[in-house]
């Protein structure tokens, strides 16, 4: 076999690895199959993946619920993640019984928006802080001409105010979907999963060029709802949860459940931050 034929055959094959199917490395777990197709496109979530807005949202909801005499909790936080603001508020009022006491969504939103504005004003136009590894990874993938997309629940009104520190990074995205007020994104009730699948499908439809298969798309997500939705959409997933929003042992329990339910083995790994992301394991160029 001459060298030219060998190279052409190699380009058509999948990436082969000899790591175990599941392994533990430096504080994070991976699901390593013996055969992986290279990732052609990467979809980023904004909140909790690129910017540290989840910490801000926690403070805002904590103050807002305190206004109505209710304590905010991690359980309530998890129930909100992956929902539009309006749906998240509806969930909170139901879960805390505030709805039964006559508190309407507009009542809560009035208080919420006051604290939201305070948080934004405190940044003095710089937006919310970047999370570890986001800038390095986005710049690296962009320099290597990997298709990048942003899929977020933000609205077109709040989005520009949140991205002050990462505007240049966001400009590197080939596709951006702001599902907070995108007319093509349908709401999913009562669970957010169908809604999130809808966002992903809209994002994928708008990609140009189109990836050859959903399996060639990698979704970077921080919420458990987002992970389930990406898997349902047929995409591969890297989960980057923020540990401070989970009780001890909860992450491991959720991950084990995902792996048992993931028939197609699209759940790739759970990592602590994008600093732990290893591009070559997905067939992407090394740092």
TrEMBL record:
GO MF annotation terms: phosphatase activity
Top-level taxonomic group: Eukaryota
Pfam families: HAD_2
InterPro entries with a match to the protein in the record: HAD-like_sf (IPR036412), HAD_2 (IPR041492), HAD_sf (IPR023214), PGP-like_dom2 (IPR023198)
Protein name as it appears in the record: FCP1 homology domain-containing protein
Organism: Meloidogyne hapla (Root-knot nematode worm)
Lineage of the species this protein comes from: Eukaryota, Metazoa, Ecdysozoa, Nematoda, Chromadorea
């Amino acid at each position: 076999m001459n060298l030219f034929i060998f190279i052409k055959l190699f380009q058509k094959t999948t990436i082969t690895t000899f790591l175990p199917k599941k392994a533990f490395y430096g504080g994070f777990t991976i699901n390593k199959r013996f055969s992986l197709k290279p990732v052609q496109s990467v979809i980023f979530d904004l909140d909790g993946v690129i910017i540290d807005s989840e910490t801000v949202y926690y403070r805002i909801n904590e103050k807002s619920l305190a206004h109505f005499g209710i304590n905010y909790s991690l359980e309530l936080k998890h129930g909100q993640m992956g929902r539009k603001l309006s749906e998240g508020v509806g969930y909170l009022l139901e879960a805390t019984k505030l709805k039964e006491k006559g508190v309407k969504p507009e009542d809560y939103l009035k208080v919420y928006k006051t604290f939201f504005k305070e948080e934004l004003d405190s940044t003095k136009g710089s937006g919310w802080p970047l999370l570890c590894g986001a800038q390095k990874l986005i710049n690296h993938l962009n320099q290597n001409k990997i298709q990048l997309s942003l899929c977020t629940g933000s609205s077109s009104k709040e989005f520009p105010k949140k991205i002050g520190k990462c505007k240049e990074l966001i400009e590197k995205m080939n596709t951006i979907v702001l599902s907070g007020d995108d007319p093509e994104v349908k709401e999913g009730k009562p669970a957010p999963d169908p809604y999130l699948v809808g966002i992903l499908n809209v994002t994928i439809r708008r990609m140009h060029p189109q990836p050859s298969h959903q399996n060639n798309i990698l979704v970077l997500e921080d919420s458990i709802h987002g992970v389930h939705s990406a898997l349902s959409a047929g995409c591969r997933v890297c989960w980057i949860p923020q540990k401070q929003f989970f009780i001890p042992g909860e992450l491991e329990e959720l991950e084990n459940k995902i792996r048992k339910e993931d028939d197609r083995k699209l759940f790739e790994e759970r990592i602590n931050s994008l600093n732990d992301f290893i591009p070559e394991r997905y067939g992407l160029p090394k740092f």
